[in-house]
Amino acid sequence: MKGGFDAKDLARSMRYAIERQSMLLSLDIARKQQLEFKNQFLSMSRTNYALPDLYSQYVSILLDGLAGPVAPEQADHLKVVLRSANQLTP
Fold first, then answer.
1. What does each of the 90 residues of the chain score in pLDDT, given as a tens digit?
2. 5, 16, 19, 78 from 56: Cα distances, Å
C-alpha cells in the first residue's frame, strides 16, 4: 500500500493475504487429489484389460446416438475419451 495506513487497513491486508494463502493451499490439495485419482484410474484401467474395451463400447453407443442425441461439443469430448480408451488397450 502506498502512503499511510491505519490498523484497519493493516488488518484487512493481513486477512486478504491469509485468504489468498488458504485458497492456494486448497487448490494445491485439490490438484494433488486429482492427480492421485487419475493415476489410480489409469493403473486400474491398465491392469484390468476388459475396462478399456467397455469404455470404448459405451462411448461408441453414445456417439452413435443410441442413448439419445449428442450435442457436437459432447461428441468432440466423447471422441477424445474413445481415443484414450483405445490407447489403453494392450
1. 566 778 888 899 999 999 999 999 999 999 999 999 888 877 776 666 667 778 888 899 999 999 899 999 999 999 998 888 888 766
2. 62, 47, 44, 10
Question: Which phi and psi (to 5°) does residue 6 adopt?
Answer: -115, -175
Burial of 85 (0-12, 13-18, 19+ CB in 10 A): buried
Quickly tell me which residue has 488397450 as its cell: 89
**Residue 35, amino acid:** L
CB-CB neighbours of 62 under 10 Å: 17
Torsion of CA 26, 31, 32, 36, to 10 degrees: 140
Say if residue 59 is exposed, middle or buried (CB neighbours under 10 Å; 0-12, 13-18, 19+): buried
Give the contacts of 49 (CB within 8 A, at least 6 positions apart): 89, 90
